[in-house]
Amino acid sequence: MAMPLGQVLVDEGIMAEELVQSALRAQKYIEQGTVDALRAAQMLKYCARTGQLLEFSLEELASIKPRQFFEERPADQVELLELLGLISNADLDQIKLVKQEALDLQKVEDFIIEKGILSPEALAALRLGLDMVHSEKISLEQLVFAMHVWLWERGDFAKLVKNLGW
Length: 166
Prior knowledge:
mainly alpha, 2 domains
């Protein structure tokens, strides 16, 4: 008879039994509609990082603010693109050259779109995310996470950030 996946993960030393139990509880919260899957994943990541269990109230876990891992905020979209790692180094080098020569971010954005490096929608999401970081609505770490989620889901970036609880 096949063993449950959680038991295999524990037996192989991949996950602690407490984290598997927390994941099962999070799964029930998702099924009940108490929390959405993205927030549950964030809570489990916090549990894995800190060793705390999911027994804490959802409100307590939801109030946990991410630590600042980055020392400086990116000044513009080019620096943010470099940090996110969404484009090739060759494209990044070209963008940096355009930025150096143009000294105008609009020309840089036009270049990014003309060359097909990013879609207009992706560039708009990037710009909005950077504005949210600069206005301290979200942290840079939250933006990195949100951008990667947005790349899978697309749609309204501001709505995605709101759905993430930020």
